């Protein structure tokens, strides 16, 4: 199992495809708001609402397609999970080693590297899909404003999603560092 640099593919997605998709969603959203009857007093709010809904859906779909076509084929994966025969405690121990929370057991480096590749591929999928959901739900919030306890809970959930996305990005980075530091020949460059 190797990771020939899915980090670069994920970075390219966030530098090129993600902003273009969000921008396209906002442009179409504002165009629809301009064509919508009786929107004159709420044009900005309506445009942001429609744009963020369309942008969120677009980012989700583009992220899914990009992950399927560009990121997944880059990982030469094994059809069976590396940690399949391990107990829950052993899987947790392997994950902690990969994420740099425990010292690396060099006797099991091939299992750790295989687990790191599988973990990194799963984290890449999460990174590509979660911003679409975040933007979509932010659009829902924009349409409502803050009028009730439910609206406050929506803000808390959005902030929680942002924190979880940040943790996912950090784990993605940590698995890349692990693969780079344990590479015998330097061939697994996560960038």
State the main characteristics.
single chain; about 190 residues; mainly alpha; 5 helices; about 75% helix
Q: Tell me the β content.
A: under 5%
Mean pLDDT level: 83
Task: Characterize the biggest β-sheet.
Answer: none
Given as residue ranges, the uncertain stretches (5+ residues, pLDDT < 50) are none
Number of E-state strands: 0
* Estimated radius of gyration: 20 Å
Order of helices and strands: HHHHH
- State the assembly state of the protein chains: single chain
Shape: elongated
Q: End-to-end span in angstroms? A: 17 Å
Number of helices: 5
Percent of residues in helices: over 70%
SS class: mainly alpha
In short:
By secondary structure, this protein is mainly alpha-helical. Helices cover 73% and strands 0% of the residues.
Characterization of this structure:
This protein is mostly helical and 191 residues long. Helix content is 73%, strand content 0%. It contains 5 helices and no strands. The protein has helices at 6-35, 43-71, 88-98, 109-144, 149-181. Helix 1 packs antiparallel against helix 2. The mean pLDDT is 83.
């Amino acid at each position: 199992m190797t990771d020939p640099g899915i980090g670069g593919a994920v970075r390219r997605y966030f530098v090129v495809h993600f902003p273009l998709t969000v921008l396209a969603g906002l442009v179409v959203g504002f165009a629809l708001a301009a064509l919508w009857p009786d929107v004159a007093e709420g044009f900005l709010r309506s445009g942001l609402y429609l744009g963020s809904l369309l942008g969120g859906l677009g980012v989700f779909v583009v992220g899914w397609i990009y992950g399927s076509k560009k990121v997944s084929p880059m990982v030469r994966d094994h059809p069976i999970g590396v940690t399949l025969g391990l107990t829950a405690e052993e899987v947790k121990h392997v994950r902690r080693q990969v994420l740099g929370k425990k010292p690396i057991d060099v006797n099991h480096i091939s299992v750790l590297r295989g687990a790191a590749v599988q973990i990194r591929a799963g984290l890449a999928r999460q990174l590509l899909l979660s911003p679409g959901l975040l933007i979509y739900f932010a659009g829902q919030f924009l349409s409502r404003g803050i009028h009730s306890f439910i609206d406050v809970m929506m803000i808390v959930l959005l902030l929680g999603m942002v924190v979880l996305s940040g943790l996912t990005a950090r784990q993605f980075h940590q698995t890349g560092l692990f693969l780079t530091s344990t590479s015998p020949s330097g061939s697994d460059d996560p960038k």
